[in-house]
Structures are given as C-alpha cells and as structure tokens.
Amino acid sequence: MNLQELLDNNGVRKPSFEIMIDKLSKKNNPLIIETGCVRQLNDFGAGMSTVIFDKYIEQNGGECYSIDINPNNINLAKMITKNINLICSDSVSYLFNKNKELRDENKYVDLLYLDSFDFDHNDPHPSSMHHIMELLCIWPSCTKGTIVAVDDNFDNGSGKGTYVKQFMSNIGINPIFDGYQIVWEL
User: What predicted TM-score, i.e. pTM, was given to this entire model?
Assistant: First the structure.
C-alpha cells in the first residue's frame, strides 16, 4: 500500500494522521519518535502508525525511531518495515537517554507519537502516567513546531494522554486536533 492508501484505511485516526503527515511534509528530513510499534499485520484498528511512518520516510526522507518493550512486536515490525530504527526497550528510559544524545547533536524531534502503554478504562492512571513520563523525558528535545500526538483519546476525557493534556493546557498549548487522537503543535 502507498501512504495515501494507508491513511485512507485508518478509520477514526485518518484525520489526525493527515494533519501529522501534512505538518511533516513542511520539514526537511524530519525526526519522528514513536512509542509502541505495530503489533499485528494489517491491524488498522490499532492505527498502523509504524507502517505509516515507514512509508512516509521511504517517500520523503527523514528518520524514525520506534520503541517497544515487547520483542515480538519489534520482530514483526522488522518484517514489515524497512526505514524504521526499531528499539526494544522501556520507552521512558530510552527517551531519557535519547534526549541526551539529541541535545549533544543539537537535534530536535519533529513528531513525537505516544502510543506505548495500553489503556485500561478500569485503571486509567498507569497508562496516562506512562505517557506523561515519556513526554517529559524527551521534552528538552522538543521545540517550536514539534508535533506531539497521543493515541486513544476518548470522548469522556480519559485516555492515554490525560496527563499530557493537563500539562499542555497548564503551559498554554491548545490542541490543533482533538479526536480519537489528540495532536498539539508546539
């Protein structure tokens, strides 16, 4: 599938991915960091972000790191992507160390896509807390124009990005898209 076909098959995530891809297209050799990678073949119910980013990099250039703690997910992603730097690690510790590396190289993240810790409606705190920790570990490598997106944003105000949403609101950054995914541009 080409990039547009991947976007078209993405259901509730299509509008937010189109915004992210449009914003990326205005950057030269963007740096994308994704937490949580593809877990099943053709799993559009989960968004296929890793495959979308792979296709974007193939067609437009840039660099993408995808971090997942599950080696089975990493192995699957290796089989179906060609342009992604796949890292099997805890995302919080990886992002903390990646931030140091990026600061040493004077590089910034163009897109931070947070989708690593499955959300449990009966116990929302662990997932929400994990995603704010990810953001804060890489925050110094974000700059004006960085796109931050969090998956699984629910109508009732809960979701993976609950604490990220509070943080962004507290520092005066409003979302540019608030649907099944929530997206900010710094």
Answer: 0.95
